[in-house]
Design a protein that fits this description.
The chain is of the alpha+beta class and 253 residues long. It folds into 2 domains: 48 residues; 198 residues, Porin. It contains 3 helices and 13 strands. Strands 1-4-5-6-7-8-9-13 form an 8-stranded antiparallel beta barrel. A two-stranded antiparallel sheet has the order 10-12. Helix 1 packs antiparallel against helix 2. It is elongated. The two termini are 32 Å apart.
């Protein structure tokens, strides 16, 4: 009994250590490094006793809504507070998860939000009005998620909590120009899974997923607002907040 408790404690300790290491290198890590960490986490759990109906892998597709916050801007020689407005809109996503045991999983997740950005007309040179300061914007998230499920008395139902780390890429297109920038992002959330049988189920999730935007990329946003003209702003180092509500189908194997 005490041996099992010690082994379980050591397993959780190793998992937290790997999570901390991933956080430290996530901004510079290549796919080989991320894959090595994923295999290490899986290896820590491969010898645990599992039920007969346990499925090692899950693939899910999802869709939903994203409520987006603005991207803060500080105009030069101006005391007003402006921001790049990002419309709330629909999203689609997909994820592939490896179940480490009955309750824990690691997931590679992608989500795209189809939206529109708008630079404040007051900051554009020459001044722009209406749709002249708007541009198309796709926001892609690439995250590694760590998921912990809970066993409850309701059959086939598993609530869970999750935390993720990765990158968010902004793909902008407007005024005859297109470009992309990627920034560090993370996510915290939770949801519930309901399994119809051993192979299919449903998943619903609510997630807060902010992105740490950089102070060095103000020109990226300026060139899309108002006939491609430059604007005099500095991009603040701040979080661009997003709240995601998603639902979808699970395929287990």
């Amino acid at each position: 009994m005490y041996g099992n408790d010690a082994a379980r404690f050591y397993s959780h300790f190793l998992r937290l250590r790997v999570f901390a290491e991933f956080f430290t290198i996530s901004r510079e890590a290549d796919m080989k490094t991320v894959g090595t960490l994923l295999l290490l986490i899986i290896g820590m759990h491969c010898r645990m006793a599992l039920s007969q109906d346990f499925k090692r892998f899950e693939f899910h597709v999802s869709g939903g809504l994203t409520a987006s916050g603005g991207i803060p801007l500080d105009p030069e020689k101006d005391t007003h507070n402006y921001s790049v407005h990002v419309n709330s809109s629909q999203n689609v996503g997909a994820g592939f998860a490896v179940n480490l045991n009955e309750l824990d999983a690691v997931e590679l997740y992608w989500q795209r939000q189809f939206t529109e950005g708008r630079l404040p007309a007051e900051l554009v040179a020459p001044p722009a009005t209406g749709d002249q300061s708007a541009f198309d914007l796709n926001i892609d998230q690439y995250h590694m998620n760590f998921i912990h499920h809970y066993e409850i008395s309701v059959p086939r139902t598993k609530p869970y909590v999750m935390a993720g780390l990765g990158a968010t890429t902004y793909r902008a297109n407007g005024n005859g120009q297109s470009d992309a920038r990627s920034y560090f992002s993370f996510s915290i959330g939770g949801g519930i899974k309901y399994y119809l049988n051993n192979h299919f189920g449903f998943r619903g999730e609510a997630r807060w997923s902010p992105t740490l935007v950089s102070a060095s990329d103000s020109s990226f946003w300026c060139k899309f607002g108002g006939s491609g003209a430059a604007c005099l702003v500095n991009l603040s180092i701040a979080l661009q907040h997003q709240m995601d509500l998603t639902g979808g189908l699970i395929f287990r194997f």
